[in-house]
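cache lookup: miss for this entity combination. No prior model stored, computing from scratch. Input as submitted by user K.M.:
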Amino acid sequence: MDMIIRLESASGRPLYQQIVDQVKHMVAAGTLRSEDRLPTVRELAADLIVNPNTIAHAYQQLEREKVIETRRGLGSFICNSGSPLSKAVRIAMVADLIDRALVEAHHLGIEADGVRAILEDRLVQLGRSEEKSHV
Amino acid sequence: MDMIIRLESASGRPLYQQIVDQVKHMVAAGTLRSEDRLPTVRELAADLIVNPNTIAHAYQQLEREKVIETRRGLGSFICNSGSPLSKAVRIAMVADLIDRALVEAHHLGIEADGVRAILEDRLVQLGRSEEKSHV
Amino acid sequence: MDMIIRLESASGRPLYQQIVDQVKHMVAAGTLRSEDRLPTVRELAADLIVNPNTIAHAYQQLEREKVIETRRGLGSFICNSGSPLSKAVRIAMVADLIDRALVEAHHLGIEADGVRAILEDRLVQLGRSEEKSHV
Amino acid sequence: MDMIIRLESASGRPLYQQIVDQVKHMVAAGTLRSEDRLPTVRELAADLIVNPNTIAHAYQQLEREKVIETRRGLGSFICNSGSPLSKAVRIAMVADLIDRALVEAHHLGIEADGVRAILEDRLVQLGRSEEKSHV
DNA sequence: GTGGTCTAGACCACA
DNA sequence: GTGGTCTAGACCACG
């Protein structure tokens, strides 16, 4: 199975960050599971046609966030260990992201109920993408 | 009334982006309303003790997003936009931000109910800052 | 004032890690205080005769650990914000380091009281180096 | 009796180093005593499911540190060393490790009394693992 | 001028 | 063969 990552070099978002985002998304969606092995740094670099250092940077950030663990000489693997951050910090991080979504929603003319509906929809989508990957 | 903006030079988020965020936040909360006049670039630069270029950059972005309108020789004013984007596009933009929050929440060990609770909390916070502005 | 860092390229310990260690040591000892400005990446690179990327790597790690904060376009500054890690994790980290010291002490024939004495001595030294820097 | 070693492939710490640490820990705790025989390289490699080279590397380092002694054709044995280093050097080595713990503790917001408490706790833990080995 | 990102390519430790 | 470290040098966003 290939891990499918799609980079947009024009997006302004750093390449390594796009990789981090997409791996985290796949883990949250269940497409990648605990103990799954990621492509090696060199493989993914060749696949995405970017410098191996860029991939290494992304993998190191994923490891710092405890999304993956790297076993020397073997490769990198998804792990599901809990975040070492304090609960208050974790909630603040999510609250900040929710805040941004709410402000943006207001400017786009989407009210509270609309945001609630979108939230429920995305929760379902994230859950279902797991089933999709088994079809 | 002064427009109160608080910058964190350490947040990693660019200063101009923080200004954009906070102006949009104030509009979302009702602290700023259509036709309200913003401080001039120079005034705000002196107030926040930052480079005027930084303020100008922020105002330009706000104008691009149709949050404010600059009238030659008169200053910048909040305009009630009415987003020109289609409903589907607008929902997709908010859904994308919600998605990021959900992915992050998953990795921080915060489940669906936790995110719902945070959403309700932030909705209340946004509402309250509106009430404060009515005092 | 120069920030004095001494690298041993033969020590096996990565250069960037040696820089991180020494900055943290100086902060703990009071030689560097909140709001003190660090040399720029390029300055320190020229000073230590290493690649600027190596310094940048060290500074980024210090920022992740909330030892310094970097203000875009201005430089890096010592900050004294608390660790975002949960208390249990923080205690475990220190306990692990203490454990290593205890095991090493045993193999070197130093018993519990000896280690306690060394601890008290180092506590005093760390405190005093602050006074020394003011002479 | 088997020598129980538990490796964490995710810890970042090299496997061979973890083996060295744990053997030294067992000697410090009294679980292993002078003249005790260690498993052969092949036995331990099979037991831990790692490359024999890794075990050999660990044993070589233990021998360099005079923790074990390899007797041709007989195997490896714990030796009660008696470090050849001068007292001043030995104290300096432990002091350096304590220093690192203190610097880390400072940055994690753990004060002197907290470190003292952790030290006493770890001393008790080391002692208890010795008692367990007497059962 | 400041740090951040990315490329290219070398060397080393580890398994 | 795997990732980690370091060098060298380019380009860009930010202030």
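stored under new cache key. The CA atoms of residues 26 and 32 of chain C lie 6 Å apart.
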